Amino acid sequence: MEPEEQISSPAERQIRPPPLSQHLREFMANPRAWAVLGRNLIPVIGIYGFGWSAALSVFSYWFDGLTALAAIVAAVVLRLLREMPGQSANLLSAMNIIRGLVAWVFLVGIIALPYWIVLIPLHDLLLGPELRRELAGSRALWLTFGSLAVGHFWKAFQSGYDRMSEKELKQRVRWDTYLLVLRAGAMFIMAAHGLAFILVPLMALLLTYMEVWPERVLGAVWGDPSRLWEYDPDEKKKR
Length: 239
What we know:
The protein is an all-alpha fold. It has 13 helices and no strands. Helices cover 70% and strands 0% of the residues.
């Protein structure tokens, strides 16, 4: 007997985005969308209007996404340590700190894999001498990127991951991390197809779309964005 055809659950069925005309109507009527676009266009205006470094702008996109992802992982690892039997009272013990750091480094290395892969096509921009010179010669840049990282970690630890139910935690973490992973994936696709020279304006448009319509981005890839907590890749393989 032939195996039954595998049928995906409604939560996993990809949702096709609405037509461009609807996007344009919604965007025109949404003042917040214009503000988001204006903020994301600042690097574009800086590069083409004031001679800002393209390498530095691309690095800022990469670093921003990577540190945001690392911060979420750190918050989740802290919750896992608290939930370990008999460990909540000794959370800051040397052994727990070592366990947490090892788990955090390992998980960031795996979950942030798209951010490591994107270094391949963007090698000349993100690992080139121009960027190294700019970073080495400016304390203000170190302060800026350091503040950016601290802000992401502060936001992650204030998001209440440790107080959420398991269902809420899965939904929130997957919502946040999936968007960040897609961001890195988009950078890789653009760079791999020879679009690195216009990556900054493309990223400005992409980040605007992801911020204005995050549910559509997630729905187009993973299905119903309100049911991300149901997604189980291991169960899908077994069917």
